[in-house]
Records
---
Amino acid sequence: MPADTPTPAPRGDRGPHAPEDRATEARRRRASGGRALKSRRLRLARLEQLEHFGRPTPRPTGGASRLAWIDAARGLAIVAVVLLHVSIGHYYALPQAADWVVPRWDRINQVVAVIRMPLLFVVSGMLASGKIRRGFAHGNAILSAVTNYYLYLVWLAVYGFLFIASGPVVVPFQPARVQDFFIQIVEPRTPLWFVFGLAAYTLVFTALRRVPPGIVLAGSAAVSIWAGMTWTVESPLWTRILLYVFYFVLGVHAKPLILRHARSWWVLLGSGVLTVAFFQAFGLATLMTPKPLSFGDSVLSLVLQLAASVLGITASAQLCRWRPWRVVGSWVGRRTLGIYVMHVPVIVAWHFAVELGPLAVVETLTATSLWFDLLYPVLLTAFVVVVCVGIETLLGTLRLAHLFRLPSRLRRRLYRR
């Protein structure tokens, strides 16, 4: 090395205030601050998501508005469920203005049966698809399952209180013995079977998420067909969990396909034609038979309800082009859980009020006014839906939201990003 070339000092001999060190330290601090800010924003976002977990789905905005039809389809299905329970739990017991009115409403409920629960489970499967696909470690499948089972137990207790408060008056789904009530902790025998089923489905199909979808769909279809051959419409309600399992799995694994074709007029037309054709081939008498179905009839029933579910989804997607339907349907659809768990107690309370005197005028009107008699199930269904939403809102303001959501401490422990 030339003699006049200075030898650089070792790095450790540089002063602590060297320009390079100060620049490096500044960059390190900026990077650290950026990471801290990002981490803080992420924590806030996670806490906000956690706070809203289990609440009614917020109204979609911007690009998410295209999914309003999913909520509307779910709302349509839940209204059909309420209509059924209004009919069998109250309306059919009233005096009628004409002998043909109840048979007509009974026929309507029987026809709607081909779409009511299958549609509700397909949409439920679509909404649970993300949690199930992400698995236990990276999704909220455990939180969702625990929340649903928690709600099942809470409202089973509410039903039990209702059974006790009714005294000698028999209410729908009332068990004959005390032990028959407690067995429902693992064997649902009330309309709450749907909530129990969601918890079970979420756990089972999250565990099976790595199995090829075709195998899971085929297996669930086989279970549904077998259930149709084993049980009937008069069988215990827990058997419906096996009967409708295929439709939930379809919603989970066929979600991209459904989203792609939901607004197709051709799919709407084709599913409508197939639903009518299969319904004519199957027949209402076979659908509502008190005997188990044959293998062929059980397969036909599965295909019929599949076509009807597609019809319900595509019809909802097309109707959501009309703003009033989109607003009302999605408003109901975002609140289905509260409506589902509360509608039976509300119907029972209304029935008591009619039977015991305060609202006895209803019996007079159904017996004397044909128009009121015809419209009463629809009017009462709308009233029950609104009352359920109002009660849920009121209980939330009274710090009783735990009737509809898992307690915050448990949510925080189970929540996964």
---
Amino acid sequence: MTDLKTSLKNPPYLQSSLSMLLFFASWGIWWSFFQIWLTSETSGLGLNGAQVGTVYSVNSLATLLLMFLYGALQDKLGIKKHLAIGVATVTAFTGPFCLWIYQPLLQDHFMLGVIAGAVVLSVGFLAGVGLLEALTERFSRRFNFEYGQARMWGSFGYAIVALAAGFLFTINPMINFWVGSAIGLVHLLILVLWKAGSKQHGFAEGQLKMSAASTPGVKEMLGLLKLPSLWLIILFVMFSWTFYTVFDQQMFPDFYTGLFESQETGQQVYGVLNSVQVFVEATMMGIVPLIMRRVGVRSALLIGVSIMFVRILGCALVDDPILVSAIKMLHAIETPLFILPIFRYFTLHFNPALSATLYMVGFQVSAQIGNVLLSTPLGMLHDGLGYKFTFMIISGVVLLAGIYGFYTLKKDDEQVDGDPFMRNVERAAS
């Protein structure tokens, strides 16, 4: 792989990075306050914990179904961008959909609104993110650049808009959705008009598809579910990342803004803190590949889970806004230390030709199954017992998942059926 300076001269890297930046910006401008919009009595819909859990659960179910389709189709397409263009098209209509369809339905016909939102948001964002990340990872291997260095621009995009999201939200939450539409439109134009990776950059049209020998069939994809080693990682993801996601997305925003004297102050501070956190996260996206080369894929993944546990438990034990803000910053370290190693784990221990399907099934799909099953029960648990006790339960589950992973995750030199991984010390020795 090349360094960042060389990558900046690589057109496919530049387009992949800009695509990541614009997609996460179009998503983050409203998603960072989505849970607050659902629950706020003054500036949102005023839903209770069980209703919010239902929204997230049905969203995850729709996302789950789409991920199988996205993974299979993208593995057939190789690095062609047809699906990515479809995703960007949907993101460009976020504002009109939320203003004229989604909000009225959630207020007057709740379940119909939940279903409509699940379809649109999953097609454009919740399943779309896994598709675009898998496509970017495939571009990185085909055109010789670090996936983490491209993915970090997505975090930068999220951070840039998060800085303004809180202030826009206190004016009118719909502004956030409309800004997301505008950014989505720019993303769509970039994907359609910029032909990076095509023959104009020295790559023949035939190179955009995978060879017949490496293109997986449906039977081969279904055969993945027969692999015991894949189920081991699926269980690990479900009991670590899934519980953490429910905590971070479904509960933490409202918990944090409730620590302040007024919701408006809490929302503005949350937006600024979220932006700072994501800027640090973006930086970590470029640093984590270096950490992996030093400690290995498996060790980096276990470190990420350990930080998850510390952050959730910390929020259960303190209620001072400054301390909770400091604890939230752990998310900037944990997310890259989980996402990048888990992707590399799949390409290390499984057939790289199935990377998109493996990522969809082994990480994204397993996480969504967990969200379908857990969002509503955990929302009801919060309604009955409050945030702190719920956080303690979630942190306990994540701790058990980390112990399970310590004993079940394969070492970097064990069952290497994909691209081998060498730590820096191994490179020096060879």
---
Amino acid sequence: MATSYKDLNPKAAIVAAGTLVAKPGKANELAQWFANLKARADSDIEPGTLRYHIVRNGDLFAVWEEYANAEALELHVEQNELFKEFIALELFELTKSAFYSGNSLPVPTKSF
């Protein structure tokens, strides 16, 4: 685990996880922005974005993002005008974040 993805192996898969709290009166607007960011992340514009999940509970949002490598994460953050506009709006307070790297679990050996 690291506090910055730059501290991890740049060629390995990277997971970014965090929790955010919407500023007062901004939860619905934040939810709409997340819906738009998720649509972009799930599109062909970001082929290195493997998973992008957001869960909402009132004003609290949990985010789980998985990227093929550091280059894919940088594409999502640094070359994404929608993301830059979202950050500039200051709709939330980041309460916790962490970055992880490594490989996925092996293929299951049991069928259900």
---
Amino acid sequence: MVSVLWAVTLNKATGPDGREITPDTSKFIDDGLVVRPEQFPCIIKPRGGEVAQTLNIEREKAIN
């Protein structure tokens, strides 16, 4: 997870009206041991060309 966060920039998604969508921080899923936010829209972009290539290589390694 840390390597993915290092490699990307996370931004809020925009709605049809062009305004940013802010996730509701009071909505979460509590599985007992793990608490996580409900799914929310966002924009995930690689920080640069080489980073995107590295992510693709690592994704292929993880799949195979």
